[in-house]
Description:
The structure holds 2 protein chains of 2 kinds.
Chain A: H1 9-33, H2 39-43, H3 45-55, E1 70-73, H4 79-89, H5 129-143, E2 149-154, H6 161-172, E3 178-184, E4 187-188, E5 191-192, H7 193-196, H8 202-208, E6 212-217, H9 221-232, E7 239-244, H10 267-279
Parallel strand pairs in A: 1-2, 2-3, 3-7, 6-7
Antiparallel strand pairs in A: 4-5
Helix pairs in contact in A: 1-3, 1-4, 1-10, 3-4, 3-9, 5-6
Chain B: E1 19-20, H1 22-36, E2 40-44, H2 48-51, H3 54-59, E3 64-66, H4 71-83, E4 87-93, H5 95-100, H6 102-111, E5 117-121, H7 139-144, E6 150-152, H8 157-167, E7 174-177, E8 183-184, E9 199-202, E10 211-215, H9 220-232, E11 237-241, E12 244-246, H10 250-260, E13 263-270, H11 275-286, E14 291-296, H12 306-312, H13 317-329
Parallel strand pairs in B: 2-3, 2-4, 4-5, 5-7, 6-7, 10-11, 10-13, 13-14
Antiparallel strand pairs in B: 1-8, 6-12, 9-11
Helix pairs in contact in B: 1-8, 4-6, 9-13, 10-11
Amino acid sequence: MKVMETISDATINELKKIANDIRKKIIEMLSEAKSGHTAGSLGMADIFTLLYFYALKHDPKNPTWERRDRVILSNGHICPVLYASMAKSGYFPEEEIMTLRKLGSRLQGHPHREFMPWLETSSGPLGSGLSQAVGMAITDKIYDGDKTFYTLLSDGELNEGNTWEAILLATKYKLNNLIIIVDRNHIQIGGNTEKVLPLEDLKDKFKAFNCFTTEIDGHNFREINNAIYQAKNNKVGVSVIIAKTIPGKGIKSWENNYEWHGKAPTKEEAELAIEELNKNYA
Amino acid sequence: MLNQNLKLNTKLFNPDVEKKTTRHGFEIAITKLGGENPNVIAISADLKDSVGLKNFAERYPERFIEVGVAEQNMAGVASGIAAMGKIPFMASYAIFSPGRNWEQIRTTICYNNQPVKIIGSHTGVTVGPDGGSHQALEDIALTRILPNMVVLSPCDEIEAQKAIMACSITKDPTYIRLTRNDTPIITTTETSFSVGKAQVYYSPEIGLANVGIIATGPILHRALLAARELEKSGIKSKVINLSTIKPLDKETVISLAKETEAIVTVEDHQIEGGMGSAISELLSKSYPVPIEFIGVEGKFGQSGTPEELEKLYGLDTESIIKKALLVISRKKIN
Lengths: 282, 334
């Protein structure tokens, strides 16, 4: 699939439907697992949908295809959205998502390549995903130059100095094959990001590091598409997309409540939530 | 006597034995590898000259990555390079890598099982005048505890070259422990080397040995000197070069314990968690015998010449002899 300068209303409607399904799967798998991270997973569902069902050059039936684009999820705790997107696009059977966090499952509580080799990396400890993406993108520049490296960071993990070390190196190498998407949902495990350790003005910070920075509504497919299109056509350097998202997006009573960062819905909560999502396509 | 089959340096007991640094061995090998293998990439954290990447950087600039003083990033970058099927060597001082970036090594390299080669130079108190902040005494413990990691600790400049060449073709994350200062050349280019194999470098001319000495790194030279001194006083010893700390060559170590019933381990590293700990983990289960440990006893280093520090921290030949006599005295009398 090739990202186009414009995206049709019909495509957007298709993607919205897929994102709605992915949200349902996220809620089902977390409720079955009885633990895990709900808010960030739901908040990133639209971006993952656009990546896996529109932007990525990939072949789910040939997951180790060398020329594929790479998705590097740095904040591994939102892996339910990654697993749901991979399952829905055909990397593995959709029913497998119900094994999340269970003994022997390929779907570990935080992504682990040893169990699921089609992941680009293992993650969980914050702040090191971008370093790996930078290593991959530099290597591609040296040898091939035909891939895009989509790197997903949380805003909370921008507290980690390691992330900024990686940004310095990415801009040194002018990695225009690297697209950093920051999930700007303003929550981290201890509360509001601006209370825990203020990040604003985040856009200015990235600009000061010589990144081509845009700020978008992370739930607006047209804006996500445009930002990725611009980033892919940026010949000069590293692109950062600050995606403003709503944690818990889709379930009104969960939205913007940081208490949903690290807990899973009960069976009853899950049923109500899925009912709410079903109403979107009633 | 020295093991003749291994074709060791015949001048190794001479006072004017040739001396070179193991990090120089890395420099020679990585420069050679750069020419031979287009998939080799070298990464520096602003220490390219002192860890031996200067020539590589000049000859293969497109495959030399300078990340600046940022060892945590270096580990992740190396993991990413390996994920793309290339062979990254990341080099720094051991205090910073695997010291500062241990968690990144654990998660991005070992947990991902990516074949990154980690060069940690400036290990041991024998770093000398730079002082305790720069003398890595914990790196063996930090690396050998990690699943998937291979830990190599060559005894001289020549063996360091072999270790680098050998690990470049394995699929394992590997830590290679190197040193700052010139140390005696013990081996020759003809001495055999393989990852995972411990070798007997010194053994009695006739009969069985009374004590087994297991040494790792350039301090092996002190162990060999000790063995020669012990022999003069009628005490037969066998000395093993344990250049692969992990995976441990269990067979060779257990066979030494069976023969000698008394072991001394010798390393320029903290005793806790080091190579000696690995030996005692093995022997306490498989063949318990008395063990004495040469190493740093729960202290930090300080400035001084390598010789002064060896003496102060009990890593010199005399200390090895004393521990050998002590461990023999602890043997069970049948």
